[in-house]
Amino acid sequence: MAETPAGTSASTFPEPLLRLEGVHTHIGPYHILHGVYLEVPAGELTMLLGRNGAGKTTTLRTIMGLWQASSGSIRFDGREIAALPTPDIARAGIAYVPESMGIFSDLTVRENIVLAARSGPVDPARLDWMLGLFPALKRFWNLPAGHLSGGQKQMLAIARAIAEPRRLLLVDEPTKGLAPVMVRSMIEAFRALKAAGETILLVEQNFHAASQLGDNVIVMDDGLVVHSGAMRDLVADKALQQRLLGLSLDAHQ
By the 8 A CB rule, do 248 and 236 touch? Predict the structure, then answer.
């Protein structure tokens, strides 16, 4: 059974920035999400974990409106967004970095960033901050993005998502297929984003990276949330890791 968030007094805990309640999603004839309940607190990094096919990517795409929820509620900053089109959800302050990254390979790094800033030129101070997070982008600023390595393309995809201030960043498997040195660079970049107060919902298959970054963790299985809590508690409980994920974090040290 999925864990439904317990009712608590608003005076005790702040309202989460994002809340899903009973969300079902169908893709054609397939019923993928079976009543998802989850919360993402503001200013924290929440990991979304689970075995392949658990429904993690579908959850992100449903939040973003790329796939329409069949039923249930998706509330962002107190506003119901389940029926909104994707452009309106983006304008509300949610950015999405898909596993495919979605960069323009024929355009330069600079042009990719410029296109991502829809409201005008990127603020110079923000641009300096972004290039501080991802120094490789500065080195390849005027090269076509298609010339970048896989890790550098991932960095560009994240930089595009934060070219303008966002309230929530959805990121799907940013370390997938990356060399260990690039994984370490990605971990450091997300630590810096956390330190800057960004709110992030992050799907990740590298459980070592997840343990290094997560404030909170949500685990899905077969289209349902089967566990939610503090990341440190999952890190400390190897039996729970085995039961929920089929392996322990130690296997990814």
Answer: no
Tokens of residue 196, six digits? 């800057």
Give the confidence band of 10 by pLDDT, cuts at 50, 70, 90. very low
What is the per-residue pLDDT for 13? 65
Rounded to an integer, what distance in angstroms lies between the CA atom of residue 183 and that of residue 220? 23
Residue-wise pLDDT tens digits, 140-177 = 999 999 999 999 999 999 999 999 999 999 999 999 88
CA 123 vs CA 128, 163, 244: distances in Å: 9, 8, 43
> How many whole angstroms from its chain centre is CA 221?
18
* 1-93+166-253 CATH fold: Rossmann fold (3.40.50)
What SS3 class is residue 18?
Answer: strand
**Is residue 15 within 8 Å of 182, Cβ to Cβ?**
no
Element (H, E) at 184: helix 180-195
How far CA 101 is from CA of 71, 144, 183, 246, in Å, comes to 28, 15, 16, 28
Model pLDDT, residue 12: 57
Q: Where are the domains of the chain?
A: 1-93+166-253, 104-164
186 has pLDDT over 50: yes
Q: Hey, which residues does 49 pair with through a beta bridge?
A: 219
Helix runs in 35-179, H state only: 56-63, 86-91, 109-116, 124-133, 135-139, 150-161
